[in-house]
Amino acid sequence: MNVSMLKLAVSTSIAVSSHLAGATSVQTSPPIQEKHVLTVEDLNKLSFLIGRWSGNAPDGRTFYEEYSRPEPTLMRSQRYKDASFSEAVNGSTVALKDGKLISTWGEFTWVATSVEDGRVSFSPMNAPSSFSWRRVDTDTVEVTQNWTDEKGAAQSYALELKRVQ
Fold first, then answer.
1. Is beta strand 154-163 parallel, antiparallel or unpaired with respect to 130-137?
2. Of 119, 122, 116, nearest to 100 (Cα)?
3. Residues of the chain with pLDDT > 90: what percent?
C-alpha cells in the first residue's frame, strides 16, 4: 500500500497526530516471543496518561486528547475538536488481550514490546510506524514515532503532550 501522507493518531496513540510524508507501506512485525504474559498490572503502568492533554502536531496545529480507563483491561484515547473537550473526532484503544497489550486506531494495530513504569513502546502488527509514550514529568509526556521513508531511510518524530488543568 503506497502512502504519501498518513495522519496517525497514536492514542494507543494511544494518539498523536503526525503526518508521515513519504511513508511507503504498512509495516508488519514478526510474531513477538513474550518472555511473560502481560497482565492488568502492566496496563496500570500507563496510568500516567489518564487525563486531558494538548500537543502540537507536526503541521503546527494544536490538538486535544483525553485518556481514560473505562475497564480494568482497556485504556481509551479520544481526540477532540478543540480545548472545550466537547466534540470527539476520533479515538483509539489499548487493550489487554490474550496476555498482550494491543493498541488499535482505525484499521491499524500495534503490540507492546516494552512496558515499564512511565514508558511503553509499541511495534506495528499492521501499521506504518512504531511509537512510544514516555512520562517526562507529571504534566509532560513525550510521544515518539519511528518509520521508514520511501527511500528506506529510518525516520523519527517526537512531540510533547502537556497536561490540561
1. unpaired
2. 122
3. 76
pLDDT in tens, 34-54: 457 999 999 999 999 999 999
Residue 63 parent element (H or E)? strand 62-71
**Domain assignment of residue 103, yes or no:** yes
Domain extent for 54: 7-163
Phi, psi of 103 (to 5 degrees): -100, 135
* Residue partners of 140: CB distance under 8 A and separation at least 6: 160, 161, 162, 163
Instruction: Quote the Cα angle for 127-13-84, to 5°.
Output: 140
DSSP 40: H
pTM over 0.90: no
Tell me the three cell numbers of residue 28. Answer: 508488519
Q: Give the count of beta carbons closer than 10 Å to the beta carbon of residue 151.
A: 8
